[in-house]
Structures are given as structure tokens and as C-alpha cells.
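Progress against Task 2.4 (sequence-to-structure conversion) is shown through the following example record, which the project officer requested during the mid-term review.
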Amino acid sequence: MATKPKTAAKKTAKPTAKPVAKTAAPKKPVAKKPAAKKPVAKTPVKQAAAKTVAKPAKAPAKKAAPKAPAKAAKPVAKKPVKAVAKKPVAKTKAAPAKTSKPAAKKPVAKPAAPAVSKKVAPKVAPKKPVAAKPIEKPAAVTKPAAPVAQPPAVVDAAPKGKGKGKGKDGKRLLGSTTVQQISPEELKVRLTALIKMGKERGYLTHAEINDHLPDSVMDAEQVEAMKSTLNDMGINVFDEAPSAEDMLMVDTAAPAADDEVVEEQAEQALATVDSEFGRTTDPVRMYMREMGTVELLDRHKEIEIAKRIEAGLRDMVLAISACPTVVTDIIEMAKKVAIDEMKIDELVEGLVDVEAEEEMLAAAAGDSDDIDTEDEDDSGEAKAAANAASLAKLKDAALERFAKIESLHSKELKALKAKGTSDAGYLRIRKQISDELLNIRFNSRTIEKLCGSVRGLRDNIRQAERQVLAICVDKCGMPREHFIKVFRPNIVNLRWIQKEVVNAPKHVQGILERNVPAVHEWQKKLIAMEESLGITLDEIRAIHDQMTKGERRARDAKKEMTEANLRLVISIAKKYTNRGLQFLDLIQEGNIGLMKAVDKFEYRRGYKFSTYATWWIRQAITRSIADQARTIRIPVHMIETINKMNRISRQILQETGFEPDPATLAIKMEMPEDKIRKILKIAKEPISMETPIGDDDDSHLGDFIEDTATLSPLEAAMNASLHEVTKDILDSLTQREAKVLRMRFGIEMNTDHTLEEVGKQFDVTRERIRQIEAKALRKLRHPSRSDKLRSFVDTNN
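C-alpha cells generated for the chain above:
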């Protein structure tokens, strides 16, 4: 074992180890201590192991001989256990220095010595294993070698050498590099596997995300960004795996994950993690940067997206029109419009006239994209009159179409009751109703309401299915896979549960038979629902699936159109800064207007979307300023009047150089002067009480506002003086007279007293108390007493 650590020392020393190895061999028999000191002087940095040996070699020389064998015995005993420790390298050189001790070392290491001695020759001769990897491996193991050297001198000297430093910090650096060396490609592979797993199952858990993306790689904000990205991909993230009741009753299985799509989504997720949170966490900068990554749309791209939105809405209308109850709801809303219980614009936005709109699209000029966006001076009354006329015209045309739909719907119900849903006549009438509904542009609220009714029907079916699942599987012990396979085809068949009782195992038959009435109860509810709707439950599921696909298609297209026009919102919001709302609030309000514009955009009119959206964005921003900018809200119509007055004031100031007075404004605005003065009062802006006053900014406006709820120092001093003078004057009267006056006027008491109350106190009549009071007041009117009080009366006056 003595020769193996020597070769390890050569590898560690790299270039300097070569001469050391040659000189160390002949110096073994010649010099004992000088041989150990020379390599230390030549290579003080990399031969730290030899340095550590010299000290223990000297220590036994100074101390008694019995201690030397004890020291030699300890490292020898530990060498076979710590196979490749670098510290024993030094002790092998110390062994020849002690001439009488090598004999004791070699016999102890006999089991391993022959194997090591065979390796010494090939390692000294070729000198090839100078690679860094075989050196670092023993270096990483040298950390536990520190306890081998027991003298304190060895322990202190060990950290100076490289071997100890590598051993202690090597593991830490190795652990950190394994985390830092995760390349974007490897992270992309992990994300791809994670997304593929989520696509196949439809959900992921937090534990699975942490397994693929360790906390050392991604912080909490990045994990949250990853969750939102997964949700956008249709992958739900749960704290724990969802229950079977939530997942097994899903209608359609999760679509197969396409590798190319998954890779693209992984790149998107990686970009979200790196770009969004790698450089900044400022939400405004992140919003601006993300907005800049979306390309602007040209005219053809806008039309393409608008057609996709229209196609998605068409799919939704086609789906819900196949449900008779939804058509009934539409007819009921039309009847409310007919009797003026509902406005027509709350139900529809317009009617589709393809021929007229195509002519309009063809007639639209190329320069029609740009229209004047400045504020017009048209009177509000003229606009209101034109709007009312257009709504009345729309109402008449829409009610005419709804009447036709109502007649078709009555025929549909008759055919449905007579021949069922598979009848050709019923299908033909249903198609006619769908065609009529497609010619009506329902507003987004109406479509959402109609879709909500279909979702409610589907939720009721799912709830009944979950209840039957809980009874049969959880309570009775029926196999879950068998229940899912058998129940769906027999959802309205009341006999299937009896067959299951007969075919069930013996330990299940009894409890299943006892729960047959509960299963029948839920099945009867489903049968009643099917009869009331007039269509089967499978058709309701198909309608819901088609509606959901169309809704998703329209939503994705709307999102694309909105994201591509976020720059437009910022360009408009910049013009409305310093009007009472912060810039970010203006952007948010403008985004709301942008989403409304996306819902109402009509591409057939020939205008670009930006031209149409500008009006909605400006309207949303101005309305929010009117509603939220002022501490005391002013009605919108008054805001318009104030703006008009300010515009006229600026015009007069530019023409004459003087601010107009209320009389001049009344003439210009054709309004009474009193109303102008009221408007000027309303137009005043509130001011903060923290407004600094003076050049030093050490005082605020609130410091100069009088507090009427507290006494001023002058009043407090006068009240205190009045109290003292009154007490002195009353003390100059007799005790009875003073007490009567105090009780009658409530002086130094909670309240005053009547003559009767004072008489009861003194056990005399009211008349006697009145006489005592009159006598006391006459005494107070004497100049010797009244002069003291007259000054207070004059001050109060």
C-alpha cells in the first residue's frame, strides 16, 4: 500500500511531479529527512502533501520513540478502509525517512500490497494517465481523509494544499454545475415530456411539474408563469391528482399529442420562462415587450381573422339552434322586444344582408381606411334622433324574421312529437330555422346566455351520471371500468341495473340490489329531461361539443385580433394622460374598448379594423375619465358641457387675449348666465390638503384650515376666565341664593332645574324659590358685581 499513494502524488503534481518521482526513488536509502524537505521547497503549492509529511516526521523525532510507532500504526490501519486518500501519499514518503519503521508498515499492509506493487511499474513507466478526470476523482474523495492526520499541525497545513480544497469544495461545485449546466436544449426536452404527459391525460400535478423543473432551476414566479402557459394549452394544473368523478365522465378522450405541436409549445413555454422572468419582473415592461412580439396585421389578415370569428359564431348558432328549448328562449326574448320590455340592441346587433354588404365592400374606396377621428360638433340631439331611427328600423326587420322563425318552430315541435328526431321533415325544418338564425347577428351577451342554457343542460346530465357512479362504484363496489362501459349506452334503460345485479359477484349483489331504487331515481330524472327537451341525451352532448368547438375557435381568433392591436390602445391612451387617471388605467380601459370593437367589427363595410376600433377605444377611455377621474363624480352630460365651455373659452382667449366672463360665455353658448355660473362652480377641481404652501414646502394647505370642532385658544381662555369670575360672584351671595342660581341655570351641574324641582330640594314652595332667585339676581345687577361680567358680554356681542 505504500507505493500506490506515491503514484497518486505524481498524478496530482502533473509537470512538477516528474522530477520529484525520479529524485524520490534514489533518495529513499540515502537521506531520510532532506529527501522529504527538497520536494517541499521546489513545489510549495502542488506538493502540499509532502509538506504535511515533514511535520509529522519531525514530531516523532523530537518526541519519544514510543509515539512514532503509534502514529505509524494509525494511518496504516486506515489505509485499507480509505482506499484512495491523498493524505497517505505523504505518509509513504515519511515511511522511508524512519529507517526502522518500514518493516512494521509493510507486514500490516500485506493483503493489498501485492496488488498495488503490480500497478506501480506500469504507472511510473508510461506516465500517460495525466488526464484531469482520474485526478479529480480521488480529489473529491479526499474530504474524509482529513481525520487521518491526527496531529494539529497536519490539520492546519492541509487546507493550504490543493487536494484538500478540491475535496471540500469539489462536491459543492460539482453539485452546482450539474444544475447550471442544464442547457436550453435539455430544458426543452423536459418541457416537451411534461407537455406531452399533460396533453395525454389532460392535467398535471404540482409534484410532476417540480419533478421536471426543479426549484433550483426555476423560481416561484417562473413556475407560476409555466402554470399559466400550461392552462393556455388546455392542461389543468392541480395540487393533487383529480378524482375519478371529475375525470372519468369526460365525454371525449384527450387528443393524441402531436410531437411537432408539443415541441412548438415547449419552445413557447421556454420563451415564457426565459424572456418574461429572466430579464425583468416589472409588469409594465413585460407587457410592452410581449406586445412588441406580436406582428401587426394587414388588411387581408384582418379579414381572415374576422372570418374565423364569424365562422366560430356560426358554429355556435348552428349548435344551439338544434336544441328546441334554445329556439324557444330566442322567441321569448323577441316577444319581450315586441312589447318594449327589452330593447332591440340588447338582443341583436344587426341583420346579415350578404348582397348589400358585398356591394358596400366593393364600393369602398382604397382611401376609406382613414377617416377623420377628431371630435365632431354635431349636437347630441341629432345623434340621438338618428340612432333612434336606425334602432326602430332594425326592430321592425328583426321582428319580421323572428315571426318567421316562430312559425317554423311550431312546425318543428309538431314533427318532433309525431315522428321523432330522425324524421326527414323535422331535419328539413331545423335546417330552415338555423339558416334564419344565421342571418341575425346576435350580440355577445345573447349568445353567451343561450350557450349558458346548453351548458346547464350538459351539467345536469353530468351531475346525474356522477351520482349514479358514486352509488354503483363507490358504495356498491362495481368495477369502475365496467360501469363506464355499461352505463352510457343504458343511461335511460331502467332494466340494466337488474341485469347487473344478476351478473354481479355474490359479495356485490346484496348491496347493489338494495341501491336499485336510488339508481332508478336518478335515471328517471334523466328520462324526464330527455322528454322535456324532445331530443336524446346523446344529441345534447353532441350539441354541447359542437358549441364548445365553435366558441373556442371564435375566442382564439378574437384573442389574436386583440393582441395584434394593443399598440393602437397605447397610442390613443397617450393623448389622455394628466386628466385624472394613471396611464396604466387608461390602457386597461382602452383594452376593454378594443375587445368590444373586436366583437362588433364588420369587415364587409370596407374599413380597416384600426379605423373602427379607434372610436371604441376613445369612447371607453373618455367614459372612464368622466366616471373615475374626479373625486366628486360629475354626470357625463355635464362633462360634455364643461368641455364645450372650455373649448369656447380657449377660442375667445386666442382671439381677444382676455379670459371671457360668464356673460360672454352665455352669449356664445346660448345658455342663461345663471347656468354658466353653476357650470363654472362645478368645473372647479378639488385640491389636496397636502398641497405644500410656500417655498420651503414645510407647511401644507391643511394646516391653514380652521377646525371648527375644537375651541380656539382665545375662546378657551375666555371660558376659563368667565368660570372663575362667575364662581367669585356667586360666592359673594348667601349659600342658599348661590345654590338656587346654580340649580336654576345649571351652573357647574349637568342640567338646569325647574322651580318645582328646586323647591323640593329646599322643601319650600315654588313661589318662595322664585322670590329667592329674583333677590339674588338683583344683587348681581349691582355695579360692584355686574362690572366684572359686562366685559364678557361686550366681547360676545
